[in-house]
Amino acid sequence: MDALQNPTEPSEPVTPGDRPPRLGRVPLVDNTVAMLRDPLAFYDRAGDHAADVVGYNVAGTTGYFVCHPDLVERVLVTDAASYEKGALLRRSLGRFIGEGLFLLEGEEWRDQRTALQPAFFRERVAAYGETMTDFAARTAGEWADGQRLDVRPHMQSLTLDILGKTLLDVDIETTADALEPLLDALRRRLDPRSPSAYVPLWVPTKTNRAVTRSLADFQTTLDEVVAARRREDAAAREQRDDVLSLLLSLDEATMDRERLGHQLLTFLVAGHDTTALTLTYAWFLLANAPDAQRRLHDELDDVLGGRRPTPDDLFDLPTLDAVLNEVLRLYPPAFTVFRQPTEPATLGGYDIPTGAQLTLPQWLVHRDERWYDDPDAFRPERWTDGLEDALPDYAYYPFGGGPRHCIGMRFARMEAKLALATIAQEYAVEPITKPPLSLAMQITLSPTEPVEVRLRER
């Protein structure tokens, strides 16, 4: 069994009423400089601290890292009604997705989540399997033995094709031409190493101007997509069951132009960039772990015998499931969860004031040696050796948790596994890019350099 048998109680008993320890002697200066210089290293400082709740102050924002699974569960599940997404996320993302499912709060969030949930029912998601494997096979068909491949752009194209067909049913090539410049601009604006991350969007920095321009272009493209859909006759509209159709079925008071744009951008970012990164990290890790890759190939050969996988096959592919679990443990694209208490709270014995920014970092919890033996190593087999039964519930939460867990989790996991299985039957990968990866905390946890592998036809 891979989980360590440490006590699960948060560390360091404290006197009720204590304030959490803080990072840095002069947090405002020290923390802001550290975040600008190397955000991951700043997070790691919190992970190295003896306490499970650690204070910080970045650019005037007072916050607390919350690094114990029991406390994460309390915030996301037990006391979820006492927390909201918070001012930091609204400031950074409100202009783009403030009316989308990710940032909505209260009754409006519940109503829209309920309206969209049918698009992610198990049977509906399973029906997308053939489309997912068709696009994955097409991607592999464009590759060649011995080719040197920068993986991420290929995975971005693959996941965008799948998302466009299955959830939005739009001309994805046209949409991609508008989406990719916006995503690129947003990544640069939201990168904590960039000064633009700390100033309002109206400040005319080069990055802010690029964001404003690309957002306008994207909205124009969405207007064209929506207008085309509304021109369809009633019979054609009734045959559609994608997310866009569900959104358009809501009355205009509920789903006006701005809200529709924010919802679509939410799904395009969450359903495209995150899964593309998961697949990118999977190929990188498999290329650098030939034994794990060989076990995956053996399982695929034994179970599938050369045919394409189906959603039903995934129940018989435990090694594939373990590979995905381990990829998401080591490199969770959604690398942290933010919450803000709406009333004074106590976590780990420490007092947390209303309005403080809570950072619940998967990046740290997933690599904590209290829960994982050899936590920085890629060891998929840990997931087939009783690990999940031994782990605290929120020692692993790549899709968040509680009532606001990712609505597309089932879709994303199936998509990643079907794509991996389809392509891995055709190719083995050899390493060109070696560990450690250079990473940036942008909208998602992203590599700063190409992630390259060498293809070997099987």
What can you tell me about this protein's structure?
Helix 8 (151-168) packs across helix 13. This protein has helices at 27-37, 39-48, 69-78, 87-97, 106-116, 122-126, 129-141, 151-168, 172-190, 206-231, 234-238, 243-248, 257-287, 290-304, 318-330, 362-365, 387-390, 409-424; strands at 53-58, 61-66, 83-84, 148-150, 337-341, 345-347, 350-352, 357-360, 427-431, 439-441, 445-447, 452-457. With 458 residues, it is α+β, with helices and mostly antiparallel strands. It has a five-stranded mixed β-sheet with strand order 1-2-8-5-3, sandwiched between helices. Strands 4-12-9 form a three-stranded antiparallel β-sheet. Strands 6-7 form a two-stranded antiparallel sheet. It is 50% helix and 11% strand.
Summarize the structure.
With 458 residues, this protein is of the alpha+beta class. 50% of the residues lie in helices and 11% in strands. The strands form 4 sheets. The protein has a 5-stranded mixed beta sheet, sandwiched between helices.
